[in-house]
Amino acid sequence: MVERIWDTPEITGWRRVPAHAVRHDLDGPDRRLSLDGTWRFQLLGNPEQAAGDDWTGIRVPGAWTVQDAGGDDLPHYTNVTMPWPGAPLLLPEHNPTGVYERDFDVPAAWAGRRIVLHVGAAESVLLARVNGVEVGWGKDSHLAGEFDITAAVRVGQANTVRLTVIKWSDASAIEDQDQWWHAGLTRSVFLYSTGTTYLGDLRTVASADGRLQVDARVLTTGSVLPEGWGVTTELDGVPVPRDTAHEQAQIADDRVSDWWAEPRFTTVVPDVVPWSDETPALHTLTVVLHDADGAELDRTENRVGFRDVEIRGLDLLVNGVRVMIRGVNRHDFDPVTGRTVTAEQMRADLVLMKRHGFNAVRTSHYPNDPVLLDLADELGLYVVDEANIEVHDHAHEICDDVRYLPAFVDRVARMVSRDRNHPSVIIWSLGNESDYGANHDAAAGWLRRADPTRPLQYEGAIKDNWTGGIAGSDIVCPMYPTLPQIVEHARSGEQNRPLIMCEYSHAMGNSNGTLADHWAAIESTPGLQGGFIWEFWDHGILQRLSDGRPAGGSFFRDGVADPGYRWAYGGDFGDTPNDGTFCADGLVFPDRTPKPAMDEHRELASPIRISDAGDGLVRIVNRLGFRGLDWLSAVWDVDGSPVPMTLPDLGPGEEAMVPVPGDASWLTLRVSVGQDQPWAPAGTPLASPQIQLRPPVRALAVTAGTPAEVDDDGLLIHPALASSPRLSLWRAPTDNDRIGGQAARWRDLGLVSPSRRVTEIRREADRTVVEAVYETAAGPVLHRQTSRLLQGVVVVQEEVTLPDGLDDVPRVGTVFHVRAGYDEMSWFGHGPRDTYPDRHAGGPVGAYDCRIDDAFTPYLRPQESGGRHGVQRLSLTGPDVPPVELTTGEPRQVSVTRFTAADLDTAAHHDELTPRAEAVVHLDAAHRGLGTASCGPDTLPQYLVTAGVYRWEWSLG
Ligand code: GAL
C-alpha cells in the first residue's frame, strides 16, 4: 500500500482500470448495478483519523459541503487564491475526510464474471475499499475512477463498499479553478460486469465523406486470450466488415499480444449526412464480443457522427466550412447540489443555449459530466473539452515541476480516452490558467500522437505571444482581449492560426456591453472566428436564511421566491478568504433564468439577417453554415402589425430580395422554429431582425393632462410626482463599474449625491426657469430646468454643462419619484427586457408593457438594472390612479423601478432591499455603456458620457 498518496503528486492513481471509451451505461441486472442513494457517512478531521461507529446518512451522488451530513464543512469560494496559504504540498492540518459506506448484493448471474466499481467523480482524492480490501486510489475530481473488484466481492453474499474522499491534497493546487470548493462524491457510483475477456476500449473515427473506422480493444483478465473469441460491429443494424488489411494485426484474430487484441473494422457509409451543430445526425454503433460458442461476453453501444475538423490557414473548418464559434463556458453547477447535475438539468442547459444561438461549449475548466457530451452530440453543440488542470495560484511553480508531470499527462490522457468518440468534441484543451511549462508540452505531445484528428488549444501557451506557443496550442485562444487587439492582430499579417477567444464578454451582473460590436468585427474580419462568453452560470448557492446553511440538506427546489432563501456568494458561508460575488458572472441566474444579455446573444446569432436594399426591397440572408431555411418560419411585423410571409428557399450563405411588405418605420422579421427541433418545438422564437425604414418622429405628445402643481423652487410639476425632478449623474454601480474601478472614481468625484444650490429662479411669461449648481470634486455642474404647461401637459427642458473634469460619468439625466399606486408600465422603445446603449441588439424597437416590479432584473448583487434604451414614450398606470404619460422627444434611456440608486448601492443581497411603493423614474439624456470591465475590456469610447453640454426635453401629462 502507498502511504499518504494525498500529498504525493507523482502518484495520480493506483490500480485504476485504464481510462477508456467503452460505455457501460446499458442498465440491467446482468450489466450494471446502481449504487446511488443514501449511504452511511462520517466526516473525519483528516485522512489519518480512523472511522468510528458514528454514522449519519448522506445522499450519493452529492457533495457533503451542501448536505447536513457535512456539518460545518460548507462551500468555500475563491478565484485564484488557494484556501490555505503556503506551499501546495503543506496541506492544512484540518483536512475534511468523508467516509462513505454502504452494503450491496452482487447478482448471482455475475458469478465468474469480471466486476468493476465505477465512481463517477470524487473530490479530490478517492480511496476505495470493498469488504475491507483496498481496491484502488484515484485523483482528478472530474473524471471517473474505476476499480476491478472481482477478487474482493462475494457473489451471492452481502458486500460492503467504503469510499474515503479526502478534500485537500497535492491535487488541490492543480484544481484551483474559479469556483466553489466542495468535497465528496459528486457523480454516480455503480458496478458493472463483463466477461473475463472483455472490451477494454473502443475508438471510432468517422469522416464527413462516410468513412468509418472502428478499433475495438479486446483484453482478458487471464494471461492469454481464449481461442475463438470474436467481435462483431453493426452500424444502424448493418454489419461493419473487419478490416483484414489492418497492419497492427499480427495473427489471424488481430492479436497484438497473447492477451491484447485490436480488431479494426472499416466501411464507407453511402450518402451520409455529416454531423454538425446544425445537422447533428447520429448513427448507432453496436459492438459485441463473444466467445467461441457465440455467447456474448461484452457489448457496448456508441453513437457515431460523421464529421471532419481541421485547421486550414487561419480557419477552423468543420466539414470544410468555416463555422463561427458562438460559444459559452460551462461548469457543472447546481444551486442546491453544488456540482451534481442530472441528465435533465444538462439537457435544459444545452437546450437553453441552442435557443439563444449558442453552438459551442467550453467545458470550463475540467471534463464535464460525460452525459453532457452525449447531449452535445445529440443537440448539436461543438465542444472544447478541457482537462482538469488549473494551477492558478501556483502556476509558475508547478507547470515545470517534474513531480506534477504525471498529473498533467494523466489528466489530459484520461480525458481524451474517455471522450474521443464524441463528434461534438472538436478541440481539446490542456486546461486553464496554469502558466505554460514543460508539463503542458508533455501533455500536448501525448495528445497529438494519441488523437491526430483534432486540434488542441491552451490559452497559457499563447498568453504572452499570439504567434508563439505553437507546441501548446493550435488556436490563438486569448481571454478578454480588447476588440482593437483582435482586429489588429487579424490585420497584422502575422496571424498564424485561427483566433477563437476562450473567454470574452464577462457576464457578471448587468454586463455584456459591446457584444454587438464584437460580432460585427468578428464577422467582417478574416481570421476571427468567435469565442466563448464567460460564463453560463451565476454560481449562487441556495442558502437558508434561518441558519445560513445551504439548502442542499432539504433538497429545496422551488427557487428563491421563498423569502427564507437567497442566492449566496463568496463569504456568505463564513468562508475566508473569498472572492465575493465574482462567482456570479453568468448569463443565467442560479435557477437557469436567462438574463437579458441572453436576448442579445440570441439576436446576434440570428440565422437570418435582413437589410434595407433600397427601391422598396429587403435583402434576406441565410446565415447558416449547413442548412436551408425550411425548418424556420417567419412573419413580418410592420410597425406592430403582423403580415404573413414565406421565407425564400435559400441555401447556406445565400440571399434574396423581397419587397418591403408595407409602409413602416420599423420593419421586423419575427423568426421562429417552423418544424420541431430536438432543442425547440415549432413556434419557439429565435430572432427578430429589424430595420428602420423611416426616422422616428421627434415630438412631445400633447394630451389632455392634469393641472400642474408648483414645487418649492416654483418649478411646475405633475401632481403624480412624489419628488421634484432632479439631476442625476450617478447609477448604482454595476459589477463592471465596481470591479473595473469606475465606481470608486465616481464616488471620489462626488457624483453620488452632489450638493445642490439654486442660483436663480426666473418666471418668464408662461414658464419657470430654475438654475442650480451641483458641486462635484471636478467643479460645479450647471443645471437649468425650464418648466411650462402646454395644453395641460407639463413640459420640462433641461440643460447641463459637465466641466472638463467629468469626462466619464455614468449618466446625465433626470430622476423623479411617482406616487404609490402605479404598477404597470408601457413604453415605445427597445424591449421587452433591459437594454442599454451598448446592449440593445436583442431588444427590437416596439410597443411593450410589463409590471413595474418585473421591469427590474435582480442581479445577485443589487446594481443598476431595469434600463430601457431608446424610449420615446412611457405610460404608468394603476387601478386607482390616473394614468401618467411621459414623452421624451427623442429616444432616451429610461428606467422605472422600485429602488433608488442609493438603495441598490448599499445592499449586498436582494433580501436586504425593501421595494418602495413609489416608482423611481430615470430619464437620461446620456447613459454610459455597460462594458465588461469586471474582467476584461470596458465599454467602447462611443458609449462613454463625457464632458460638455447636454440638452433634453420631456413632458408629463
Ligand atoms: C478567467 C478564468 C475563469 C474566471 C474568469 C473570471 O481568467 O479562466 O475561470 O475566473 O476569468 O470570471
Automatic annotation (TrEMBL):
Q: Which SMART domains match?
A: Bgal_small_N (SM01038)
- Supply the InterPro entries for this chain: B-gal_small/dom_5, Bact_Beta-galactosidase, Beta-gal/glucu_dom_sf, Gal_mutarotase_sf_dom, Galactose-bd-like_sf, GH, GH-type_carb-bd, Glyco_hydro_2
Keywords associated with the record: Glycosidase, Hydrolase
Q: Which domain of life is it from?
A: Bacteria
EC number(s) reported in the record: 3.2.1.23
Report the family membership.
Answer: Belongs to the glycosyl hydrolase 2 family.
Name of the protein in its database record? Beta-galactosidase
